[in-house]
Amino acid sequence: MEDCLFCKIAAGEIPSDCLYQDESVYAFKDIAPQAPVHFLVIPREHIDSAAAVSQGNSAVVAHIFEVIAKLAKDQDLEGFRVVSNVGESAGQTVRHLHFHVLSGRDMTWPPG
Ligand code: 5GP
Ligand code: ZN
Q1: Which of 3, 16, 31, 48 has most ligand 1 atoms within 8 Å of its beta carbon, as the pocket-test mutant?
Q2: Which atom in ligand 1 lies closest to the alpha carbon of residue 17?
Q3: Which of 14, 34, 95, 99 could make a disulfide contact with 8, Cβ separation 3.0–4.6 Å?
Q4: How far, in Å, is the centroid of ligand 1 from the Cα of 31?
Q5: Which sign does the torsion angle of CA 110, 78, 41, 61 carry?
Q6: Are strands 37-43 and 80-83 parallel, antiparallel or unpaired?
Q7: d(CA 20, CA 41)
Q8: Residues in contact with ligand 1 (CB, 6 Å cut-off)
Q9: pTM
């Protein structure tokens, strides 16, 4: 999608600190980490948010969770949190589906 920051990052048009990539998924460090470990996993395909996941595009979401499990194992993460904000009121600032993976500190529940 034109003018989408994360489409451009996945395409390599905007530099990022890549942790993993394949034909459908891209993982990179968050530019403003909220925990000692904070990376994002996104589909290369533009999907607005988790609210736009459907039967036609959900396979990549399953793959994203495989990638998250692999990266967590590679980094020996003992515990971690996976977050996807949907809509402005929930804190979504980039309208391209992404999963935050946060680790390396104690976390509170419920999130704010
Ligand atoms: P959201 O607020 O939409 O749930 O998450 C968007 C995330 O993208 C934020 O945590 C923000 O720090 C991160 N972010 C925004 N712009 C960039 C960028 O240009 N590069 C990287 N690596 N992360 C970004
Ligand atoms: Zn996009």
Answers
A1: 31
A2: 22
A3: 14
A4: 6
A5: negative
A6: unpaired
A7: 9
A8: 5, 16, 28-32, 85, 91-94
A9: 0.98
Which tens digit of pLDDT belongs to each residue from 84-99?
A: 999 999 999 999 999 9
Q: What is the pLDDT of residue 112?
A: 84
What per-residue confidence (pLDDT) applies to 97? Answer: 98
Looking at every residue in the chain, the average pLDDT score rounds to 97
Distance of CA 26 to the CA centre of its chain: 8
Letter for the amino acid at 105?
R
pLDDT on residue 106? 96
- Annotated catalytic residue 63: no
pLDDT tens digit string along 33-52?
999 999 999 999 999 999 99
Euclidean distance between CA atoms 48 and 41, whole angstroms: 14
Ligand located closest to 86 CA: 1
